[in-house]
Description:
Elements: H1 22-25, H2 61-73, H3 95-101, H4 104-107, H5 119-136, E1 140-142, H6 148-165, E2 173-177, H7 183-190, E3 194-198, H8 208-214, E4 219-225, H9 237-246, E5 250-254, E6 274-276, H10 279-282, E7 297-299, E8 311-314, E9 320-323, H11 343-379, E10 384-385, E11 395-398, H12 409-418, E12 425-426, E13 436-438, H13 446-464, H14 468-472, H15 485-490, H16 500-505
Parallel strand pairs: 2-3, 2-4, 4-5, 5-6
Antiparallel strand pairs: 1-7, 6-7, 8-9, 10-11, 11-13, 12-13
Amino acid sequence: xxxxxxxxxxxxxxxxxxxxxxxxxxxxxxxxxxxxxxxxxxxxxxxxxxxxxxxxxxxxxxxxxxxxxxxxxxxxxxxxxxxxxxxxxxxxxxxxxxxxxxxxxxxxxxxxxxxxxxxxxxxxxxxxxxxxxxxxxxxxxxxxxxxxxxxxxxxxxxxxxxxxxxxxxxxxxxxxxxxxxxxxxxxxxxxxxxxxxxxxxxxxxxxxxxxxxxxxxxxxxxxxxxxxxxxxxxxxxxxxxxxxxxxxxxxxxxxxxxxxxxxxxxxxxxxxxxxxxxxxxxxxxxxxxxxxxxxxxxxxxxxxxxxxxxxxxxxxxxxxxxxxxxxxxxxxxxxxxxxxxxxxxxxxxxxxxxxxxxxxxxxxxxxxxxxxxxxxxxxxxxxxxxxxxxxxxxxxxxxxxxxxxxxxxxxxxxxxxxxxxxxxxxxxxxxxxxxxxxxxxxxxxxxxxxxxxxxxxxxxxxxxxxxxxxxxxxxxxxxxxxxxxxxxxxxxxxxxxxxxxxxxxx
Length: 506
Ligand SMILES: *Cc1c(COP(=O)(O)O)cnc(C)c1O
């Protein structure tokens, strides 16, 4: 299955050029630069100098440029088309925010500069903190966490510190509902807590009765994702929060899906003690390429004293100061990382917040939910939605509509690629069978949503017409077809070895 669909004489497909490894392209005896011969210097390496060739491939500048440009063109990206990955909020990031982050006054700063020379940067951090506190109604914010999961770690460490401070450090259990994001139990375990699962009900929400039953005096806190991984609002969230607090525990909310709530819900009103915000999802930092991101964590009055260092404060004289050491009655649990966090991401987020304005943010979350419900409504014609009723920012389907067709969720996704449509998130969340989770975000037009729905509905009809091979043989039009993922994971080839004759010549 790994060979390409229709063979060409060259192995290329149109102007999509087959790309060998850079080592396979050059010749060790070629070079792209012309350096003068080294002067005759005495050998001070004690006989350790290499005598054999180093085996780097020699290429000219245009060969190198073409290699990396062609590789970059093999990446699908939000700039290339609709990217419906559920749970990821792959939305367009306005270029204005990139421009702001690249201003030399921001981009050329060094974290060791004296504070008097970086007052503007501290003002950015302070303003961003004010926006995040304004949008959530919370007491304090730690900007430094570098990702969503890192923000979870920050919030859970604050909970630990608060428990220790009141002599309740023996509470070791964290409740994690089935509908929570996978990073939640991982974070709880990393902090040394025992994870106790809580089942969902048939509406895709936490089972309130089971939740109440799971609460006891061993529970340190709960980690809830809202909107949850089924794209649904946890309607009982206030009752959950009350029950958690009555049990003497803390309420952590995974706020990575804040894009669905901004400007509509004050997080503090829900009884939340800690929540991270993914700036790289909701607040306009490109992501999906491994970073950098930022996961600021907002804290309630109960947890604020334990916030990690550093933070920025406004001074009476109009200046700003970065607090790096304990002052007054602060009891920080520590630091999350070196320096102050991902500053470039802060600039993008503040630029986004200020250019959108409060009204624009409110509209964005409304449009995100509207777009997801548009997908849900149109695709429900043929696909099987997992739960009844409207969704929040993402629409969840399962594979019941494929029953008896011989086509799996994976096959369906591969056929989408052939049609020029990037697949949705598959097989997540785990609570439904063969999940297909689609998040359109507010930045897609009705035309792009319709083009996506037309393609998905056409494929669904094709699958139900009995043409399973069309799916099981997909993708036909990609540079590589299906890979042996198990073998790749079990026997990864991480190192290029020269072909045999060249080895012998070394
Ligand atoms: C993306 C996401 C996370 C993790 O964020 P990272 O920045 O990838 O660490 C956590 N929870 C939810 C619900 C998410 O969608």
